[in-house]
Amino acid sequence: MAGDSPRIKRTRRGEYLLRLPEGERELLRSLPAQLRQLLSTDDASLRRLFPPAHADDPLANAEYTSLVRDDLMAERLARLEMMETTIDAARLDEQQLLAWLGVLNDLRLVLGTRLDVTEDMYEEEMPGDESRAPAFELFRYLGFVEEQIVEALAPG
Question: How many C-beta neighbours within 10 Å does residue 89 have?
Answer without folding.
Answer: 14
